[in-house]
Amino acid sequence: MEKIYDLIIIGAGPAGLTAAIYAQRARLNTVVLEKLTPGGQILLSEKIENYPGFPEVISAQKLMKQVQKQAENLGTKLNYEEARSIALEDEEKIIHTSGGKKYKTLAVIIATGAETRRLGIEREKEFIGRGISYCATCDAPFFRNRQVAVVGGGNMALQEALYLSKFAEKIYLVHRRGMLRGEKILQERITKNPKIEIIWRSVVDQIYGEEKVKGVKLKNLKTKKTHNLPCSGLFIFVGLKPNTEFVQNILELNEKGFIKTGENLESSRRGIFACGDVRKNLLKQVIVACGEGALATHMAEKYINEVKGIEYK
Ligand SMILES: Cc1cc2nc3c(=O)[nH]c(=O)nc-3n(C[C@H](O)[C@H](O)[C@H](O)COP(=O)(O)OP(=O)(O)OC[C@H]3O[C@@H](n4cnc5c(N)ncnc54)[C@H](O)[C@@H]3O)c2cc1C
Known about the structure:
Layout: E1 4-10, H1 14-25, E2 30-33, E3 47-48, E4 58-59, H2 60-73, E5 78-79, E6 83-89, E7 92-97, E8 102-110, E9 114-116, E10 132-133, H3 136-139, E11 147-151, H4 155-164, E12 170-174, H5 184-192, E13 196-199, E14 202-209, E15 213-220, E16 226-230, E17 233-236, E18 240-242, E19 272-274, H6 286-308
Parallel strand pairs: 1-2, 1-8, 2-5, 8-19, 10-17, 11-12, 11-17, 12-13
Antiparallel strand pairs: 3-4, 6-7, 7-8, 9-18, 14-15, 15-16
Helix pairs in contact: 1-2, 1-6, 4-5
The protein binds flavin-adenine dinucleotide (FAD).
Residues 10-16, 33-36, 40-42, 44-45, 48, 50, 82-83, 111-114, 156, 159-160, 243, 246, 276-278, 284-287, 289 line the site of flavin-adenine dinucleotide (FAD).
């Protein structure tokens, strides 16, 4: 007979790995599917300063290795496969993966997170890796003593601009609003940093260059005036695109593609839960993803018990 798991967790970022820790402790028969490397998006960051319990700055890689180790020590099984689709068969859910495999399970936790959104302007794709980047931690050393532009005004843009200031000669932070959105502590560091200059109420209208980025044409949204800003790097942090393509036909998503859930983290389908950055929630941070991972497993366990007819007396 084909094996039926209690729970399949899709994604091994902070949300998925925490869900796995709770699943192992609940003795649920679980597998975690991960398409790339366990750890998730935070691996794109050099360090993490706002995760409780670490008064000194901790490396994001180190933190996620510890979480992975904790999950594995408890017996978590991690399979390196991409979930491609979920089908429903009565109470059972069938997950098809990139490896051509098929998993049957009672409950699913979707913890597939998100990726940085593209600006969506001409030539953006052509210049990726030739001046355009979505990860300062990965690419900043290539821009030593150069002039770069950073687009965005949220936490990620501020953090990455600060990181870039260790390498680049000058950083222009291009923001479409008249004030920044990121944490106040980051805003203070940005204003104190002599290498960073903010260009307010402006957007990138065009990217120019031949083989590589040579600069961008900026447009002021108030005056409608444009001007060229020479730079060899353009770092884009303008929000997130959720990894939900594989469930868009079966789950209710919001207009930006994030999974809608109730406060019990259950999606529009019974037995399919979502947690972390992939969910329509109010804060995209590691601590939130971990908390939601724990809650998702707790609610999934209740659902599994219900399906199996197990009652707590
Ligand atoms: C540059 C940067 C700096 C940041 N700095 C901070 C910070 O200082 N503090 C903080 O708290 N947060 C920070 N964040 C945000 C934080 O990284 C996210 O909130 C957090 O990682 C979300 O966790 P998650 O598990 O929900 O999703 P993710 O971390 O996105 O993990 C999702 C996982 O699912 C996998 N996956 C996706 N699709 C599939 C599929 N179909 N099948 C199988 N696997 C799949 C992915 O490969 C990934 O491993 C930062 C993010 C970035 C990008």
